[in-house]
Design a protein that fits this description.
Blueprint lengths: L1 H16 L8 H4 L14 H24 L16 E8 L4 E2 L4 E12 L2 E4 L3 E6 L10 E7 L11 H6 L3 E6 L2 E6 L5 H20 L4 H10 L7 H9 L10 H19 L5 H16 L4 H18 L6 H15 L7 H32 L4 H31 L1 E3 L2 H8 L3 H17 L1 H26 L5 E3 L5 H19 L4 H18 L1
Helix pairs in contact: 1-3, 1-11, 5-6, 5-15, 5-16, 6-15, 6-16, 7-16, 8-9, 8-10, 8-12, 8-13, 9-10, 10-11, 10-12, 11-12, 12-13, 13-14, 13-17, 15-16
């Protein structure tokens, strides 16, 4: 628990660091409680813990302030909102292709203002046309105006981009490719393979099945029609299209359930299967920062199970989050980070009690052996993982997207069994398509079958009048209140055997009070 307290103190300091300043020397003020060790030597651990928490809290405040960018002349953001400039830089990530254009993250190294080239650094988000196409590692020369990102409504777009290391945007500049292959070569290979696989999926499947398979298998959502995307939002299954924490955790949960069903719990084959699926999936989708963060958190959970130290999951998860925030404090405000962290909490805290309840219910009525029992156990385990994650993340999804899906549990239960087949058949069809297109088309029929089923289920459920409720942005106070209720419910479940005795004592105490009154 000490590690959890320390991590919470650090995160709280970063959170409050956005509201007020503290001088760097204030970190030393956290050592003041150590003076209490003189009269209370027998209270060493709590006093040292309190002191360490204060040090980390003040350190978190100072760390956040240090992360606020200051625009020096050598930073490209210092030229925002001025006149036209010429930049030289490299495409730093895979191009984000949308319906109306392409978005490029360019790592800038030179700028020309007034006919003089100067060395600068920083990332710029470029809004460009769909054509010509650009690749990761392309060296570009750009002419245009640098602008500061503008936030709109409740969405802090400037802060969102800052979390990705971007402080400037440029809309439709003149672009000229002056070189290729300047990026990190292994990452370039991954992006090239991803693009080639996406192309083969488009060849072996019709639309919109092809776009859906590209989204699920590769995390490429550009081609998904707006109507299909709306169906997934209304049914609370949009996480399947966005490779992030909740998606990885559900996929890993399904592989855990499948591994236990196939191999049992001996030798932890199910853990190795889930670990392989997690990192293989992350690699296949391009190893973006949110995916890597989610994969790391999920791996900690799986490794704790592998080592037989499930109780270590929470401290390890808290430590991982604290370390991530130390490197990038603004992650605390990113929806992807919040959803990844909460998904792991749902997987670690909420899903296991639900799985135990379901398995006990089945064993009492059908026994513990047989194909039917194993199939029902797999079904309840999968449902527990799904509902466990949804119960924790839905307030955050409703807060950011303004929609709460009533159909989400049913929709996830119906479509999640089709997710592994889509991943397998989609990846296999695209890989075989690279070797011989007819082979890819044969497997593509299976991928078409599962993707069509998924599209049909989401479309039917999304058409129901009560499929979802438009909530608008939820007040954070209500979200914290909800989490408090969930925490109370989990605590009561843990001490459920002592609840009758506690209730009896409370009732006896109230009875005495009433009789004396």
């Amino acid at each position: 628990m000490t590690l959890i307290y320390l991590s919470i103190a650090w995160a709280a300091g970063i959170l409050l660091g956005s509201q007020f300043h503290l001088p760097a020397w204030s970190v030393a003020a956290g050592l003041i409680p150590l003076v209490l060790l003189i009269p209370f030597r027998n209270r060493l651990k709590p006093i040292v813990t309190v002191s360490a928490c204060l040090v980390l809290f003040c350190g978190g405040v100072v760390r956040y302030q240090a992360s606020v960018p200051e625009h020096y002349a050598w930073q490209v953001a210092s030229y925002n909102d001025g006149g036209a400039v010429t930049l030289k830089g490299t495409v730093a990530t895979a191009p984000d292709i949308r319906d109306t254009g392409t978005r490029l993250t360019v790592r800038v190294n030179e700028i020309n203002t007034g006919g003089k080239w100067q060395t600068v650094s920083g990332n710029v988000l470029i809004f460009a046309s769909l054509y010509p196409e650009y690749e990761y590692g392309d060296v570009l020369e750009l002419d245009g105006k640098l602008e500061t990102p503008l936030s709109s409504g409740d969405f802090d777009y400037k802060g969102y981009l800052a979390g990705q290391g971007i402080s400037s945007v440029m809309y439709y500049p003149r672009l000229e490719v002056t070189g290729h292959g300047a990026g990190f070569r292994p990452l370039g290979w991954i992006y090239s393979a991803r693009k080639a696989l996406a192309g083969k999926i488009a060849q072996v499947l019709p639309e919109p099945q092809a776009a859906l398979a590209q989204g699920i298998v590769l995390g490429i959502r550009a081609g998904i029609p707006a109507s299909v995307n709306d169906d997934f939002v209304r049914t609370g299954t949009a996480h399947i299209l966005a490779i992030s924490g909740q998606n990885l955790s559900i996929v890993a949960g399904l592989f855990i359930a499948a591994g236990i069903w196939l191999f049992g719990k001996k030798r932890y084959f199910y853990v190795w299967l889930a670990l392989a699926a997690t990192w293989g999936y992350a690699l296949l989708t391009g190893m973006s920062a949110p995916v890597v963060r989610s994969a790391i958190m999920l791996s900690l959970f799986l490794c704790a199970d592998l080592l037989g130290r499930q109780r270590s999951v929470l401290p390890a998860l808290a430590l991982t989050a604290a370390v991530m925030l130390a490197f990038t404090p603004r992650l605390l405000w990113e929806a992807s980070f919040q959803l990844s962290f909460l998904s792991m909490l749902g997987l670690a805290l909420v899903a296991p009690p639900m799985q135990s309840f379901g398995r006990d219910f089945i064993s009492k009525r059908l026994g513990e052996e047989g194909i039917l029992v194993r199939s029902l156990n797999w079904l309840t385990d999968s449902l527990a993982v799904t509902v466990g994650v949804i119960l924790v993340i839905w307030p955050v999804i409703a807060h950011y997207f303004g929609v709460f899906s009533i159909a989400a549990p049913l929709a996830n239960l119906l479509i999640l069994p089709a997710l592994p087949p889509i991943l397998v058949t989609g990846a296999l069809a695209s890989a075989l398509g690279l070797i011989a297109l007819p082979l890819g088309q044969v497997v593509g029929w299976l991928a078409w079958l599962f993707t069509s089923y998924l599209l049909a289920v989401t479309h039917v459920l999304a058409g129901l009048a009560a499929a979802s409720i438009t909530t608008g942005a939820i007040n954070p106070a209500w979200i914290w209140g909800y989490f408090a209720v969930v925490a109370l419910a989990l605590w009561l479940y843990r001490i459920r055997q002592r609840v009758p005795a506690i209730a009896g004592r409370v009732a006896g105490f109230l009875g005495v009070c009433l009789s004396n009154g």
